[in-house]
Write a structure and sequence with these properties.
408 residues; mainly beta; Pectate Lyase C-like; 3 helices; elongated
């Protein structure tokens, strides 16, 4: 009888535990106060878009919304069209970046989320906005859960369809900032598209965005359009699937001390200076960056100029690329599409580490093959001021070759 009683007690305890688990799963949403008169769920169970947008409107121009840490599910896009600060409560002044180790307010896309330009749209196509600050905010595109939705279907159309897969966009935003934040798991396109001069983009993480293995699912980490007199400093890029960090023209801008790692996801390039907008990098400096591509994970660790993608596009010009460390990539640094007019671009003092096989690799379309090499320069389309660069502390001369049409 004693044994049966013990067995009964054990079974009863298990039943109570199962019941308590069931009750916990069915518990009400975790509601928190986010501004006067507004509550939102910060467990990620119930959409919070309406409450967040109401708080932004109530705070108005020049206002601040501080969100308690947690996960806020977005079924609709948040729009910010006036000077505003959005940050995690209690983290003002902190130097910790929003990653898994730092609890921040996370804005996460609901499985059905399908608004163009992503979770946050700052500014508009037709109006200017100034002084919008995103600080210690995590953006999660929830890519896996959205692979059967409308936004994903738009991604697969290519071209401008990728804007349905963005995590966020800053448009016509002058003297705006993104600091100590993160953007991850975007569906396609980019984790952050940026338009606006005087930007400060510092100490953020851009992680696991897009998928290179499927056509049109690839995504940049940070895509910068027309962002002159800006600073891009101390950011971390890991496993983005198109180009981790790309600028289409930014004069008088610093790109410094950023780290780019391709560990598990292949990418077209780690860092790229392109010409989709102006291609003007006059008095800009690209320095102190580390671009680290595991074997087979980058076609180009660094690509300067548009020619491997779009041979007929305008060339880039101006600025200095110096003091960067490049590891891996089929081509460590490729220079193809720099013009002689304007300020000459200077490329010197960069360090290449590791080994390159110098074996032919296949390119698409017109080019049959290029050599795997740390430094490649197309003499026909690379008007540059080329100084000494180094491979394992040995002065390095570029391998001259055409890389037109290397990427389709």
């Amino acid at each position: 009888m004693y044994t049966l009683n013990k067995l009964f007690a054990a079974l009863s305890g298990a039943a109570v535990l199962a019941l308590s688990c069931h009750v916990a799963m069915a518990a009400p949403a975790a509601m928190v106060d986010i501004c006067p008169g507004q509550q939102a769920d910060n467990s990620g169970a119930v959409p919070a878009s309406a409450a967040l947008q109401a708080c932004i409107a109530a705070a108005g121009a020049g206002g601040t919304l501080e969100l308690p840490p947690g996960t806020y599910l977005l079924d609709k896009q948040l729009a910010i069209t006036f000077p505003f600060t959005l940050r995690t409560k209690g983290l003002q002044g902190s130097s910790a970046t929003c990653t898994l180790d730092t609890p921040c307010a996370t804005l996460k896309a609901a499985p059905e989320f399908s608004d163009r330009y992503g979770l946050i749209a700052v500014g508009t196509d037709d109006s200017q906005v100034r002084h919008v600050n995103l600080d210690h905010i995590a953006l999660d595109g929830n890519r896996i859960a959205r692979l059967k939705g409308h936004a994903h279907a738009q991604c697969l159309t290519g071209g401008h369809g990728n804007s349905w897969g963005f995590n966020a966009r800053m448009k016509n935003c002058t003297e705006c900032t993104l600091t100590y934040s993160s953007s991850s798991n975007t569906l396609c396109g980019t984790a952050m598209e940026w338009w606006g001069d005087g930007a400060t983009i510092a100490h953020n993480a851009f992680l696991n965005n897009g998928n290179r293995h499927l056509v049109h699912e690839w995504a940049d980490g940070l895509s910068m359009h027309l962002s002159n007199h800006s600073t891009v400093r101390g950011n971390r890029f890991v496993d983005n699937s198109d180009v981790a960090l790309i600028s289409f023209g930014a004069h008088h801008t610093m790109f410094e001390n950023n780290t780019i790692h391709q560990v598990k996801m292949p990418a077209f390039a780690g860092l790229m200076l392109d010409s989709l907008d102006t291609g003007d990098f006059t008095d800009s400096v690209v320095t102190g960056n580390v671009i680290d591509c595991a074997p087979g994970m980058c076609d180009f660790a660094v690509n300067i100029g548009p020619r491997p993608w779009y041979p007929d596009n305008q060339a880039v010009f101006g600025g200095k690329v110096t003091g960067n460390t490049i590891r891996g990539g089929t081509l460590g640094m490729n220079i193809a599409g720099v013009k002689a007019g304007g300020q000459p671009m200077e490329i010197a003092g960069n360090k290449f580490e590791g080994k390159w096989s110098r074996q032919p690799v296949t390119c698409f379309k017109a080019v049959r093959a290029v050599l795997s090499t740390p430094l490649s320069r197309d003499p026909k389309h690379a008007a540059i001021k080329l100084g000494r660069n180094y491979l394992n502390r040995v002065p390095l001369e570029p391998h001259n070759q055409s890389t037109d049409h290397c990427i389709n």
